[in-house]
């Protein structure tokens, strides 16, 4: 007999999940009520004589290099981040699960599909998204599309691996030999079994998408500054970051907080739904 | 071992082919007219037509793909539309800065991630374990450019210990190299270190519970030797594999880090090319870095096979 | 004086409902050069007891009592002291030769690191000694085996390597925990023969932990029987197999398959299953399965000798 297994210390996980949900509800509230909270400050209004002002009572986050109110811009920026996070998570998860289920279930297609996924995965996501947005011009929709494509390979891989595991289970083998039709097997046995893992991964993809959007906008390959996003606000603060750090600080804090919230949600969900699941990768 | 190496090399050929196909198709299938985009809003229709012919955009996909592939196999990655300099030359000029940045970041990340992950697994629930948990979530939540500006503000701008901007070749002035590279490498290392610490912790938790670790202790070996020699040698293959896949984090992060720290590397080259819509450069650099990624993962697999005889089977 | 003298060994594991004892008040004495078998079903605490003596249990285990090895208490001594006695004083051979060797290191490395410091001083001498050890456990072409990996060897070969590793530190006592259980029957016989010849040649003492009574009868001079964390009986092997004192020992012996017993001879079996850690009480834990159980069995059995209220009757 082998020695007793080392005990794994149970940290208070529910706290993580709750913290994640709380942070995200707050950000969601900010995004929905942006006009109300901004209190009449216009995110697009350019005031040339009020450029790069430090934070004050009237302008809580200061103004940017064109004299636009940063408080309003940062609040509105939450909308883009949440849209991108949700949009990419949904698009990549749905499309990736479809491809992964096909690869994991239809043997003849597996080799070809997986080589293509490996190829796509070999292009670092940032570069792939930058190149795609450069070609398509930046808009929220195009950015979501580009990031979703960049995130696709991970989803396909997980879905395929999960399908193969479930497919190997005795009860699924029994269903197959007893002549159940493929769609019935997929819907009744396979999808319910991989749903938890896919859902957990979707949250991590959302976190990574929010970050990636900020990166794209930050390097100037994302959404143009007419739509305020945390990334492009920071891009404008880039040249003067040493003397006017406030332009970078507030969007950076909101960005980190949001991504942290989604990651906490993901970790919390993983421990609830899919305790054997891998890391955030 | 040789058989395994040959099989593994052969297996990466179709992957590399798919990479090339994607990078090519990316610009081909893009909605809108690349020639029009490239020429800019002020160009006349005739100008656009000329550019289209010059780029070969008027010929069918397959023909162009085969020609393009043929040129690439001969080392011709195209020519920058903006500067007229061959893309291969541009890459050659910038590759040192980017690779230095990535290698120093790799050293920092594995120097922190592996020991922290191993300690966390050695004492679950201990201080190192909690640090890995918290550091893991933070490492994945704070973008590279935020870490970059934060480190730069404190250590370069306020304290003046490091250079704020630029890059110095390690072969020209090693002190200057360190002053310019350490901060960007440290900020680039953040998420990568978190990734390495997590996988090391998970793998070592499994390995340290294995029977042969008990055998090593029963021999009277010290704990350090048990964990490092017997634990890490078994955990090395999974850790290296994740580090190889995670190289994408470094490659992507380099684009951002170079922007923050004004390093004239491949990332800056890409970003500048994006702003100028210099497609051959975007295509060339993307392809080059994707091939690097494929090569790194091939190298990692061969390394794993060298360390772990089970992989060779 | 006994080589290893275990007194009142108690091992507890923490659980939600308080500590649970896996071993309760175990006394054992192994004399130099003898083979003592510790017998019991899985879960009886025999492996836990041996791991406790070696200090190899996880930190969650609470070990109390004494384990005097050559007069010094292994349980009370600091970890670094204990570590110096592992391998060189007491060595272990484990049940699973498939997993007990490190799969990524060569046989040579794993043998050499078990050698005493002086024998590791020169690389050539260390390799020589390692090859010698492999030869002594009956491995042919030992020089070339040094550079092989565990997966290149058969199960029996790996167990021979494990024994060679155990011998490397020139210990006075080997704890062999189910050394043959995972092996084929023919290979089992070879390993038993090897252990016996090594013991003849080197005078090493063996603490054999097993549930295999056929093996125990072949190898052991004395036998201690454990049930549910307690020793229920200890006797010379011949006496025990002849006249088991405790009903549990009697049941075990009746369950040994015999050659020539005939196809129709049914094996006796002990009904029921051993109690889990949480189900154990102060009375006789074997009572629910015992054919002789009576009301008195709910009270603690005798603390010395055979742990049975009916021991005289049983012995008769």
Automatic annotation (TrEMBL), chain A:
TM ranges: 20-38, 80-106, 126-150, 194-223, 243-266
Family annotation (SUPFAM superfamilies): MetI-like (SSF161098)
Boundaries of every ABC transmembrane type-1 domain copy: 82-266
Keyword field: Cell membrane, Membrane, Transmembrane, Transmembrane helix, Transport
Subcellular location: Cell membrane
Matches recorded under InterPro entries: BP-dependent_transpt_permease (IPR050366), MetI-like (IPR000515), MetI-like_sf (IPR035906)
Protein topology in the membrane: Multi-pass membrane protein
PROSITE patterns, per the entry: ABC_TM1
Pfam families linked: BPD_transp_1
Protein family: Belongs to the binding-protein-dependent transport system permease family.
Protein's name in the database: ABC transporter permease
Originating organism: Sphingomonas canadensis
TrEMBL record, chain B:
InterPro entries on file: BPD_transp_1_N, MetI-like, MetI-like_sf
Domain ABC transmembrane type-1: 95-304
Principal localisation: membrane
Compartments reported by the entry: Cell membrane
Keyword Ligase applies: no
Chain ranges passing through the membrane: 9-30, 99-122, 134-156, 176-195, 235-261, 281-307
The keyword Transmembrane helix appears for this protein: yes
Membrane topology of the entry: Multi-pass membrane protein
Keywords associated with the record: Cell membrane, Membrane, Transmembrane, Transmembrane helix, Transport
A Pfam family: BPD_transp_1
Similarity annotation: Belongs to the binding-protein-dependent transport system permease family.
Listed name of the protein: ABC transporter permease
From TrEMBL, chain C:
Any matching Pfam family: ABC_tran
ABC transporter domain mapped to chain residues: 6-253
UniProt topology in membrane: Peripheral membrane protein
Single Gene Ontology MF annotation: ATP binding
Alphabetized UniProt keyword annotations: ATP-binding, Cell membrane, Membrane, Nucleotide-binding, Transport
Location relative to the cell: Cell inner membrane
PANTHER family (UniProt xref): DIPEPTIDE TRANSPORT ATP-BINDING PROTEIN DPPD, OLIGOPEPTIDE TRANSPORT ATP-BINDING PROTEIN APPD
Family membership: Belongs to the ABC transporter superfamily.
Protein name in UniProt: ABC transporter ATP-binding protein
Organism in which the protein naturally occurs: Sphingomonas canadensis
């Amino acid at each position: 007999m082998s020695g007793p297994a080392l005990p794994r210390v149970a940290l208070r996980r529910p706290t993580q999940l709750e913290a994640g949900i709380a942070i995200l509800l707050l950000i969601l509230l900010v995004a929905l009520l942006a006009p109300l909270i901004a209190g009449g400050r216009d995110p697009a209004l350019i005031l040339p004589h009020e450029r790069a002002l430090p934070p004050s009572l009237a302008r809580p986050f200061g103004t940017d290099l064109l004299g636009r109110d940063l408080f309003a811009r940062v609040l509105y920026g939450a909308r883009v981040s949440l849209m991108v996070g949700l949009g990419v998570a949904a698009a990549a998860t749905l499309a990736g699960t479809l491809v992964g289920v096909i690869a994991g279930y239809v043997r003849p297609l597996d080799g070809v599909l997986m080589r293509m996924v490996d190829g796509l995965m070999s292009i670092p996501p940032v570069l792939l998204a930058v190149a795609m947005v450069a070609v398509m011009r930046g808009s929220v929709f195009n950015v979501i599309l580009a990031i979703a494509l960049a995130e696709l390979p991970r989803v396909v891989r997980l879905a395929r691996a999960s399908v193969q595991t479930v497919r190997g289970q005795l009860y699924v083998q029994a269903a197959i030999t007893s002549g159940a039709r493929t769609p019935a097997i997929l819907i009744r046995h396979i999808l319910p079994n991989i749903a938890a893992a896919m859902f957990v991964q979707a949250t991590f993809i959302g976190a990574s998408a929010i970050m990636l959007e900020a990166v794209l906008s930050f390097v100037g390959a994302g959404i143009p500054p007419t739509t305020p996003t945390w990334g492009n606000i920071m891009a404008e603060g880039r040249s003067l970051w040493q003397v006017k750090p406030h332009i970078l600080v507030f969007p950076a804090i909101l960005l980190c907080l949001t991504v942290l919230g989604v990651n906490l949600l993901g970790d919390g969900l993983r421990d609830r739904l899919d305790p054997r699941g891998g890391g955030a990768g | 071992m040789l058989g395994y190496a040959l099989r593994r090399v052969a297996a990466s050929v179709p992957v590399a082919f798919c990479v090339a196909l994607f990078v090519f198709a990316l610009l081909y299938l893009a909605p809108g007219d690349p020639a029009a985009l490239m020429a800019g809003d002020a160009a006349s229709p005739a100008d656009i037509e000329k550019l289209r012919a010059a780029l070969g955009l008027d010929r069918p996909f397959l023909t162009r793909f085969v020609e393009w592939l043929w040129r690439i196999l001969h080392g011709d990655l195209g020519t920058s539309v903006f500067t007229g300099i061959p893309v291969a030359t541009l890459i050659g000029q910038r590759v040192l800065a980017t690779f230095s940045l990535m290698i120093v970041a790799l050293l920092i990340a594995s120097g922190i991630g592996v020991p922290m992950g191993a300690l966390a697994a050695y004492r679950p629930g201990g201080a190192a374990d909690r640090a890995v948990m918290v550091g893991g979530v933070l490492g994945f939540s704070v973008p590279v450019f935020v870490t970059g500006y934060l480190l730069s503000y404190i250590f370069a701008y306020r304290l003046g210990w490091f250079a704020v901007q630029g890059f110095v070749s390690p072969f020209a002035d090693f002190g200057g190299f360190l002053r310019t590279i350490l901060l960007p490498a440290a900020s680039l290392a953040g998420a990568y270190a978190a990734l390495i610490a997590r996988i090391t912790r998970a793998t070592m938790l499994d390995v340290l519970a294995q029977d042969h670790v008990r055998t090593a202790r029963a021999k009277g070996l010290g704990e350090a030797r048990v964990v490092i020699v017997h634990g890490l040698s078994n955990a090395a293959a999974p850790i290296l594999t994740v580090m190889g896949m995670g190289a994408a984090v470094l490659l992507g992060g380099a684009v951002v880090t170079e922007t923050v720290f004004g390093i004239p590397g491949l990332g800056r080259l890409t970003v500048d090319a994006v702003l100028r819509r210099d497609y051959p450069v975007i295509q060339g650099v993307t392809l080059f870095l994707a091939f690097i990624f494929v090569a790194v993962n091939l190298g990692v697999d061969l390394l794993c096979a060298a360390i772990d005889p089970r992989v060779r089977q | 004086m006994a080589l290893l003298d275990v007194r009142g060994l108690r091992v507890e594991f923490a659980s939600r409902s308080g500590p649970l004892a896996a071993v309760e008040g175990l006394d054992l004495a192994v004399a130099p050069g003898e083979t003592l078998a510790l017998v019991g079903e899985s879960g009886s605490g025999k492996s836990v007891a041996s791991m406790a003596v070696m200090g190899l249990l996880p930190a969650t285990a609470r070990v109390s009592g004494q384990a005097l090895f050559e007069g010094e208490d292994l349980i009370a001594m600091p970890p670094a002291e204990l570590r110096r006695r592992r391998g060189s004083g007491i060595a272990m051979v484990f049940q699973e030769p498939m997993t007990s060797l490190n799969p990524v290191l060569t046989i040579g490395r794993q043998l050499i690191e078990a050698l005493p410091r002086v024998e590791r001083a020169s690389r050539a001498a260390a390799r020589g000694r390692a090859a010698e050890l492999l030869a002594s456990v009956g491995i042919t072409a030992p020089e070339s085996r040094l550079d092989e990996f565990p997966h290149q060897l058969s199960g029996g070969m790996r167990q021979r390597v494990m024994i060679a590793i155990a011998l490397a530190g020139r210990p006075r006592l080997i704890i062999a925990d189910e050394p043959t259980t995972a092996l084929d029957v023919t290979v089992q016989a070879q390993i038993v023969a090897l252990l016996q010849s090594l013991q003849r040649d080197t005078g090493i003492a063996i603490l054999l932990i097993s549930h295999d009574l056929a093996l125990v009868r072949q190898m052991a001079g004395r036998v201690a029987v454990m049930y549910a964390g307690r020793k229920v009986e200890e006797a010379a092997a011949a006496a025990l197999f002849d006249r088991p004192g405790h009903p549990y020992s009697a049941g075990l012996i009746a369950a040994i398959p015999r050659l020539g017993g005939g196809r129709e001879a049914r094996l006796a079996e002990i009904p029921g299953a051993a109690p889990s850690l949480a189900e154990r009480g102060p009375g006789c834990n074997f009572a629910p399965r015992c054919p002789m159980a009576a009301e008195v069995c709910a009270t603690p059995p005798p603390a010395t000798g055979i742990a049975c209220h009916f021991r005289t009757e049983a012995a008769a």
